[in-house]
Amino acid sequence: MKILHTSDWHLGIDYHRHSFTEDQRYALRQYYEIIQQEAVDVVLICGDIYDTTLASKEAIALFDEAIKHMIQELKVKVIVIAGNHDSATRLSIMRDLLEAQGLYIFGTLTSKPQPLTIDNVDFYPIPFVHKDTISAVFQKSFSNYEQAFLQLTDHIRSQKRENRQMVLAHAFVNGAKVCESDRFAHIGGTDLISKDIFYDIDYVALGHLHRPQKITEHIRYSGSLCPYTFSETAAKEVVLIDSETMDIKSIAVTPLHPMTTIAGSYETVCEQLLKHQEDYVKIILEDQGISFELLELFKERCPYLLTLSSNQQEQREAVTLKANDLDTLSDEAIVKQFFMDYFNREVTAEESDWLKQAKGSEFICG
Ligand SMILES: [Mn+2]
Predict the structure, then answer these.
(1) Do residue 170 and residue 283 come from a single domain?
(2) Rounded distance from Cα 210 to ligand 1 centre (Å)
(3) Are residues 104 and 215 in the same domain?
(4) Distance (Å) from CA 171 to ligand 1 centroid
(5) Residue 157 falls within a domain, yes or no?
(6) Ligand 1 geometric centre to CA of 205 (Å)
(7) pLDDT tens digit string along 147-188?
(8) Residue 221 domain-assigned?
(9) Residue 182 and residue 329 share a domain
């Protein structure tokens, strides 16, 4: 049996009010092609279907469209777990009715994990879960999140029979690499779990982090459906697992508009924009400040320009002078520091002259 592992679709997400719906539809079409070409039987979606608990009409429509296409046209079964961005209750509406159609939705952990058996695989879908929920299910208290999660995987291992065991989870495994859009991942927090708690499980399909990555050969993050921030320049992927041979491979998914950051002088930016007219672009101007006129001008050259900033302005935010420096430093020292903070340079001889005239005394430049 062939299994396709994906996660973190984040349907309905926007970036400064720019909708990603067309990008998501473009990536989903590639999923459909992979499903056909590779003769996939089961699709796993490991949480964060939607970007917000109150998903927009557009987001719900796209989920409806994708699931209907996969189940009715491509004849696959789909297993979905809720992530921290989803509303578990809303996501699992009519779940019992939908199971008959081949859509298995796990919104909330309400009982000890039971296998969902398809062909030679026992799937154990674990939706995003808090420690207290695991405590309630097992009638037991745990010292930390990892201990609680270990109880889940111990329980799963205790049910081992001939079938493969595969776990679906939406969690932060220690040592994984994060990116900018993992904004609610609890970095350094209490919700970390070790990869070691998954020993003897044949495959662990993870969601939560948006960067596709292998924790081990058999414990992987598929990464998100599309790049959603400018830090996500690497290709997006899905993972394909053959449950007979346990061959596992990842397949790249091309974004409709790659994320490109262009930093440089006005001239460099104009030159680079010509090469990235189909990309989402973030411009950081290095030789001048920004204005609405510049924004309009760049937008004409690049319809997918999403952000424009100037590192001169960024430096302005990083002023190193403190309020009490005004009392302790000389006027000259304050002006010199001000120039370094704002313009990243020394005071010129000409400026020193102006300052001297204004102040009526000697001012030393250099
Ligand atoms: Mn996510």
Answers:
(1) no
(2) 6
(3) yes
(4) 10
(5) yes
(6) 14
(7) 999 999 999 999 999 999 999 999 999 877 776 666 555 544
(8) yes
(9) no
Q: 167-177: per-residue pLDDT in tens?
A: 999 999 987 77
Same domain, 225 and 80: yes
Question: Which of 204, 200, 220 is closest to 212 using CA atoms?
Answer: 220
Whether residues 181 and 264 share a domain: the answer is no
Note the pTM of the prediction, 2 decimals.
Answer: 0.82
Q: Which residues contact 172 (CB under 8 A, 6 or more apart)?
A: 185, 186, 189, 191, 192, 193, 208, 209
Distance 246 CA to ligand 1 centre (A): 26
Q: Does residue 301 contact residue 273 with C-beta atoms inside 8 Å?
A: yes
Confidence at residue 323, expressed as pLDDT on a 0 to 100 scale: 60
Q: How far is the CA of 169 from the centre of ligand 1 (A)?
A: 12
How many domains does the chain contain in total?
3
pLDDT digits (tens, 9 = 90+) for 284-338: 999 988 888 888 899 899 999 998 888 875 545 555 666 666 667 777 888 887 7
Give distance in angstroms: CA of 198 to centre of ligand 1: 21
Cα-to-centroid distance, 282 and ligand 1 (Å): 22
**45: domain range?**
2-253
**Residue 364 located in a structural domain:** no
- In this predicted structure, the answer to whether residue 16 has a pLDDT above a threshold of 80 is no
Tell me, in angstroms, the distance from the centre of ligand 1 to residue 35's CA. 23
